[in-house]
Structure formats: C-alpha cells, structure tokens
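Changelog note: in this version the structure field was regenerated for every chain. One regenerated record is shown below for reference.
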Amino acid sequence: MASIRLHAAAVLAVLSSSACAGPGTTARPSAPPATAPPVDSAAPQAPSVAPPAGAAAPPRRAPRAGATGARPGAVAAGSAEPAWAPPILHTLAVFTVTRSVEAVLWPDPFADFRLERWGYHYGEAFTKPPLFDADQPAFRWDHDPWPINVIGHGLLGSEIYFRARSCRFGVPAAVAFAIAGTHLWEYGYEANGVRPSALDLVYTPLAGALLGELRYATWRAAAGIESAPARVLVRALVDPFGEIERGAGVFDC
C-alpha cells in the first residue's frame, strides 16, 4: 500500500505541474546566436602587407564592353587596316568624269562611240607597244600638249595616290595603287580613242606619288590647326573632292 501511495503522489505531482504550465506553453527558446563585437574604429588596424620586391603584379581586369571609358572597336593609331572601297570607287568616279569631259572638249576621237571604232582602237592598244615618239619635244612624246601631260596627268596621278594614302594605305601600296589606276586609265578608259602613252604610264604614277605625298602631309598637318574654319579651308584646298565626300557622309577617309 505504501508503494501505491508513493506512485499516486508522483502522478498527481506531474499532473499538477502540467496544469500550472497551461496549454499554450512551448519549448524554451534557445539562446540568441553570439554576434561579433563592433569594430572600434579607433583601434589600430593591422598594416597591409606589400608584395615582395620583384613579385609580378596581379593582372588587371580588362574593361567590359560598353563600360565607361571603354571604346569598343577602337584601333590603335597606325594599326588600322586600309579601306579599299573608298579609293577604288573614288578613282572610278574621277576617271568617268574626266573621260566625259574629254568627249566634250575633244569630240574627235573621244566622242566617237561606234563599236567598230572602239574595237579598232582597243585592238591597237593591246597589240602595239605604248606610243613614244622621240622626235617630239620633251613631254610631248605622245603628241599631246605638254600642259596636259605635265599638269593634267600629275594631278590625276596625285588624286589616285592621295585617296589611297588618306584611306590608310602605306606608301608602297599607294604607289602600286597609282600604277594600277594609271594602267586602267590608259588601257581601259582612253584606249577606245587613242593609243596608250608610254610617257603617261611612267609619269602619271611617279608625279602622282610625289605630289600626292605632299598633299597628304599637308592634309595631316592641318589637323593641328586650332581654328576650325582655317582647318576646313586648308583641307578643302588640299583635298576638295574628299572633303565633299566626307562632308556628305559618302566615305569616311
């Protein structure tokens, strides 16, 4: 009986403690996590360790495309590739206009558009050597007036050469471009009216390179002129057709 009474007393004690706690009592919350103490700004900080002498610096990250300061597509000066389309199209346009002016100024033979005459002249051009008459005075060896040969062909050659140089051709490439353009003029544009000239084949690219390089140097030096009207004026005098083309947005060089 004594043991029964002891068990009963224990059960009553447990029930009474549960009743006092109430139905909404939950488990005791755990202690909040410990947080790091605030850093005292006045406390001395550990000095940064400098890399040892001779150690390679960490690589710098390249700027992202579109980021501030980055220039997508920018090419270092002197490394840009030459542009072929502008000098070719410009040269063809100059040749077409010049050939049309010849037809107006000298209808015989340049305004004779009969196919049989064209066939005859082209046949002569490609079956005979270029014309060179040593009995004629200097710079008239092809029977043309000397102003046409000296001034006209010099300017024509310089226009071909200069356009190549302004479109980032090197000097050798620009000379080759002037030589190719001269042959196209003599054997393509003019050969349907007159026989190609040995003087023109040599003089046009040679004088064109000399005069064209002088024009190119002046054109580049004009970029340093502070006054915008003066800069535009000098460049227009040196390269009138190019300034018109660039101003109209046709070409960018």
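Spot check on this record: Residues 1-44, 61-78 have pLDDT under 50 and may be disordered. DSSP finds nine helices and no strands in the chain.
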